[in-house]
């Protein structure tokens, strides 16, 4: 399966390393869309990809699926048009806090018969949420995220401090680069306005910790994720990057596990 990659940041580079560098048997990143060809020119020789700066030429290249690994802003700009041409795996799920964008993308995906894949990112358990409400009911979904104090607050503190309480839509509005998980959790569960989010600055931790609680007809569940960062980028969760690779593998495999 040939992959077209939008963006060449931390997760994009991770995909190139894991897929192209390791010569994956069924996956290959063949095309990369960037804004600055000169800045990323070395990718062509390092990974055997073709660089594009124009969306039209990029989509016309030999690719089967597009992986968006850019920014929320880029995703908002490109997603409605890209999904008319190709299946899309969206990493910047925070873009989906925009209800008008969701309506446009859903309409285009249905009209042009293309799929939008949303990886689970820095958390897991989304299959439970989806299964629990298929023929049942979810009563509540909450997310508590603890972050190293220095990453969310501009002052030294000795004890943990709540820096945000609200819903998923409000969380991604305040923290557009770091709370994509609130949106994917909302999509899998009870929606953006009914997904409760708390963010805590904690001076005693050195990595992000996400705690998800779910209640419903099925019973109740709780998940805790203590995530290591990518070695090359401490702002990006290693699990979030791995979830993209896992989603791509599940797309082409005939044996499906979970959900």
From TrEMBL:
<dbReference type="InterPro" id="IPR005106">
    <property type="entry name" value="Asp/hSer_DH_NAD-bd"/>
</dbReference>
<keyword id="KW-0520">NAD</keyword>
<dbReference type="Pfam" id="PF01958">
    <property type="entry name" value="Asp_DH_C"/>
</dbReference>
<comment type="function">
    <text>Specifically catalyzes the NAD or NADP-dependent dehydrogenation of L-aspartate to iminoaspartate.</text>
</comment>
<dbReference type="InterPro" id="IPR002811">
    <property type="entry name" value="Asp_DH"/>
</dbReference>
<dbReference type="GO" id="GO:0050661">
    <property type="term" value="F:NADP binding"/>
</dbReference>
<dbReference type="GO" id="GO:0051287">
    <property type="term" value="F:NAD binding"/>
</dbReference>
<dbReference type="GO" id="GO:0033735">
    <property type="term" value="F:aspartate dehydrogenase [NAD(P)+] activity"/>
</dbReference>
<dbReference type="Pfam" id="PF03447">
    <property type="entry name" value="NAD_binding_3"/>
</dbReference>
<keyword id="KW-0662">Pyridine nucleotide biosynthesis</keyword>
<comment type="pathway">
    <text>Cofactor biosynthesis; NAD(+) biosynthesis; iminoaspartate from L-aspartate (dehydrogenase route): step 1/1.</text>
</comment>
<feature type="binding site">
    <location>
        <position position="122"/>
    </location>
    <ligand>
        <name>NAD(+)</name>
    </ligand>
</feature>
<keyword id="KW-0521">NADP</keyword>
<dbReference type="InterPro" id="IPR011182">
    <property type="entry name" value="L-Asp_DH"/>
</dbReference>
<protein>
    <recommendedName>
        <fullName>L-aspartate dehydrogenase</fullName>
        <ecNumber>1.4.1.21</ecNumber>
    </recommendedName>
</protein>
<dbReference type="InterPro" id="IPR036291">
    <property type="entry name" value="NAD(P)-bd_dom_sf"/>
</dbReference>
<dbReference type="GO" id="GO:0009435">
    <property type="term" value="P:NAD+ biosynthetic process"/>
</dbReference>
<feature type="active site">
    <location>
        <position position="210"/>
    </location>
</feature>
<feature type="binding site">
    <location>
        <position position="180"/>
    </location>
    <ligand>
        <name>NAD(+)</name>
    </ligand>
</feature>
<keyword id="KW-0560">Oxidoreductase</keyword>
<feature type="domain" description="Aspartate/homoserine dehydrogenase NAD-binding">
    <location>
        <begin position="7"/>
        <end position="119"/>
    </location>
</feature>
<dbReference type="InterPro" id="IPR020626">
    <property type="entry name" value="Asp_DH_prok"/>
</dbReference>
<dbReference type="GO" id="GO:0016639">
    <property type="term" value="F:oxidoreductase activity, acting on the CH-NH2 group of donors, NAD or NADP as acceptor"/>
</dbReference>
<comment type="similarity">
    <text>Belongs to the L-aspartate dehydrogenase family.</text>
</comment>
<feature type="domain" description="Aspartate dehydrogenase">
    <location>
        <begin position="158"/>
        <end position="244"/>
    </location>
</feature>
């Amino acid at each position: 399966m040939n992959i077209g990659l939008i963006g060449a940041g931390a997760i994009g580079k991770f995909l190139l390393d894991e897929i192209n560098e390791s010569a994956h048997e069924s996956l290959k990143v063949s095309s990369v869309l960037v804004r600055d060809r000169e800045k990323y020119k070395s990718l062509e020789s390092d990974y055997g990809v073709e660089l594009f700066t124009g969306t039209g030429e990029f989509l016309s290249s030999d690719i089967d699926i597009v992986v968006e690994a850019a920014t929320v802003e880029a995703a908002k700009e490109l997603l409605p048009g890209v999904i008319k041409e190709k299946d899309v795996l969206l990493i910047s799920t925070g873009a989906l806090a925009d209800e008008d964008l969701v309506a446009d993308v859903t309409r285009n995906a249905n009209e042009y018969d293309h799929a939008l894949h949303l990886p689970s990112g820095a958390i897991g358990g989304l299959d439970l949420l989806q299964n629990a409400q298929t023929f049942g009911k979810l009563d509540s979904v909450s997310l508590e995220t603890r972050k190293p104090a220095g990453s969310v607050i501009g002052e030294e503190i000795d004890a943990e401090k709540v820096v945000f309480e609200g819903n998923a839509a409000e969380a991604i509005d305040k923290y557009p680069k770091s709370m994509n998980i609130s949106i994917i959790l909302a999509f899998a569960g009870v929606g953006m306005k009914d997904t409760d989010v708390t963010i805590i600055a904690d001076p005693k931790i050195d990595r992000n910790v996400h705690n998800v609680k779910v209640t419903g007809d099925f019973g109740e569940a709780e998940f805790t994720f203590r995530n290591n960062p990518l070695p090359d980028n401490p702002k990006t969760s290693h699990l979030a990057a791995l979830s993209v690779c896992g989603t791509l593998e599940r797309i082409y495999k005939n044996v499906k596990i979970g959900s």
